[in-house]
UniProtKB/TrEMBL annotation:
Residues 133-190 are annotated as: Disordered. It is found in: Nucleus. Its main location: nucleus. Gene3D superfamilies: Histone, subunit A. Residues 56-104 form the Transcription factor TFIID subunit 8 C-terminal domain. Belongs to the TAF8 family. This is Transcription initiation factor TFIID subunit 8. Keywords: Nucleus, Transcription, Transcription regulation.
Length: 190
């Protein structure tokens, strides 16, 4: 038994594997002059009749595969042409688009709270319509125009800077960045 194990391990390593398989053990036993029936390989299911190799192809080349492999193999999905399927797909895409848009507005717009004790749980999109709702997202907020810059300089000379606003209660405790209130960047002094 020890010799069979050693030999099968040697055949296994010779084949580049880590663990011996049944064939390694069978070869080791054949080498020890034992009569062993090799395992019978199951026949594969053949679909169609395989054509023979033409005369210009040598005999040692492998035979053609089953005809189902190369007669008709579609490489792309056929487009949907049924009216009901197209309508269902369009409806599901519209539903997904509406859901994504409402989530975007809920995360970026003003919110109302359902529960007065915890304003961060169950936020609702506010009902106040904006004249240009996406204009704020498109316009840069960190640039100052020359007229506003001059007006701000005059105000700063006349009055001292007000203290910075304190963060709202509970806003620092929120782990989800989409539910926190928006923090605008500080304006740099030039």
């Amino acid at each position: 038994m020890v010799e069979v194990g050693r030999s099968s391990r040697a055949y296994c390593e010779h084949a580049g594997r880590c663990e011996p398989i049944v064939n390694d053990v069978a070869i080791a036993m054949i080498e020890m002059v034992s009569k062993v029936k090799p395992p019978i390989q199951p026949k594969t299911l053949q679909a169609g009749i395989k054509p023979t190799l033409p005369s210009y192809i040598p005999d040692y080349y492998p035979p053609f595969p089953d005809p189902h492999a190369y007669i008709r193999t579609p490489t792309h999905k056929q487009p949907m042409t049924e009216y009901e399927g197209i309508r269902e797909k369009a409806a599901s895409q519209k539903r997904d688009l509406d859901r994504a848009l409402s989530r975007f507005i809920a995360k970026t717009g003003t919110k109302q709270a359902i529960l007065p004790d915890d304003p961060t749980s169950y936020p609702l999109v506010s009902c106040k319509p904006h004249p240009n709702p996406y204009l704020e997202a498109l316009l840069p907020k960190d640039q100052e125009f020359q007229e506003e810059d001059e007006a701000n300089k005059k105000k700063k000379k006349a009055a001292p800077e007000p203290p910075e606003p304190k963060p709202q209660e509970g806003s620092a405790d929120i782990d989800n960045p989409y539910l926190r209130s928006v923090k605008l960047p500080r304006k740099r002094k030039r």
